């Protein structure tokens, strides 16, 4: 049996995901612009030069973090678009809201970072562009639900979309994984609160 190679001395063994997780935590704590590669190296117990053996740049880490959040949100919208034929826009929209809560909970630090982006770099501008495309697709889905008579028409669809996903995004301010609120109950509660208030009821 071959023995595993001994780790290189002087450099703690971190995989890419561990470095990314710690970087996201640091960006959220200090702000991306207020965090240097030296800060991250110190956080990981590495020398400033050794950190570059793990990642090429701070921008690379930011891009990976924002892609993590955006890929999850895009997947939720893609899933709704690929729903079984005959699935109403209302049902698809409700599913997207619930799945978005699940994605936010699962990727809370990355989504938190995404929501704090202001477009101060090319990486941030690209992320904001992707986020706008997602927002546009969600607004289109809201409009489709209004058109089929499932949602009230006296509130502009783009405002409905902003309010719906503004409520989901607000979770980053107070939700904590492992806390007293179960993620599945949270997702169902938000969808119930939102759609019982928005859905048209006969009678």
From TrEMBL:
<protein>
    <submittedName>
        <fullName>TetR/AcrR family transcriptional regulator</fullName>
    </submittedName>
</protein>
<dbReference type="Pfam" id="PF17932">
    <property type="entry name" value="TetR_C_24"/>
</dbReference>
<dbReference type="GO" id="GO:0003700">
    <property type="term" value="F:DNA-binding transcription factor activity"/>
</dbReference>
<dbReference type="InterPro" id="IPR050109">
    <property type="entry name" value="HTH-type_TetR-like_transc_reg"/>
</dbReference>
<dbReference type="Pfam" id="PF00440">
    <property type="entry name" value="TetR_N"/>
</dbReference>
<dbReference type="InterPro" id="IPR041490">
    <property type="entry name" value="KstR2_TetR_C"/>
</dbReference>
<keyword id="KW-0238">DNA-binding</keyword>
<feature type="DNA-binding region" description="H-T-H motif">
    <location>
        <begin position="36"/>
        <end position="55"/>
    </location>
</feature>
<dbReference type="InterPro" id="IPR001647">
    <property type="entry name" value="HTH_TetR"/>
</dbReference>
<dbReference type="InterPro" id="IPR036271">
    <property type="entry name" value="Tet_transcr_reg_TetR-rel_C_sf"/>
</dbReference>
<feature type="domain" description="HTH tetR-type">
    <location>
        <begin position="13"/>
        <end position="73"/>
    </location>
</feature>
<keyword id="KW-0805">Transcription regulation</keyword>
<keyword id="KW-0804">Transcription</keyword>
<dbReference type="InterPro" id="IPR009057">
    <property type="entry name" value="Homeodomain-like_sf"/>
</dbReference>
<dbReference type="GO" id="GO:0000976">
    <property type="term" value="F:transcription cis-regulatory region binding"/>
</dbReference>
């Amino acid at each position: 049996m071959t023995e595993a190679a001994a780790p290189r001395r002087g450099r703690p063994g971190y995989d890419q995901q561990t470095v990314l997780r710690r970087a996201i935590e640091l960006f959220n704590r200090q702000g991306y612009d207020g965090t240097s590669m030296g800060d991250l190296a110190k956080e990981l117990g590495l020398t400033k030069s050794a950190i570059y053996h793990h990642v090429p740049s701070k921008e690379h880490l930011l891009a990976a973090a924002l892609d993590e959040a955006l890929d999850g949100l895009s997947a939720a919208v893609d899933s709704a678009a690929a729903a079984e034929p005959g699935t109403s826009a209302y049902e698809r929209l409700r599913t997207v809201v619930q799945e978005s809560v699940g994605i936010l909970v699962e990727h809370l630090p990355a989504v938190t970072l995404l929501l704090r982006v202001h477009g101060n770099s090319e990486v941030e501008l690209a992320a904001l562009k992707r986020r706008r495309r997602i927002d546009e697709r969600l607004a289109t889905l809201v409009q489709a639900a209004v058109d089929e008579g499932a949602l009230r028409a006296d509130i502009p669809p783009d405002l409905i979309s902003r309010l719906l996903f503004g409520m989901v995004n607000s979770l980053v301010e107070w939700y904590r994984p492992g806390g007293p609120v179960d993620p599945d109950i949270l997702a169902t509660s938000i969808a119930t609160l939102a759609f019982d208030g928005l859905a048209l009821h006969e009678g």
